[in-house]
Amino acid sequence: MAHPYHHALSSVKKWGGTVDDFIAVHAWLDVIWTGKAFLDLSGSDSP
User: Could you name the domain of life of the organism this protein comes from (predicted)?
Assistant: First the structure.
């Protein structure tokens, strides 16, 4: 998976604006897509 910055660049090309307009959204989506946000909710004691 690409870095959120590169995804933000693609959004700039498609929608206009600046990278700063999209970087937070793509950083959040990166967390959701990799499942990191749900590791604490799994109930598992293993890493």
Answer: Bacteria
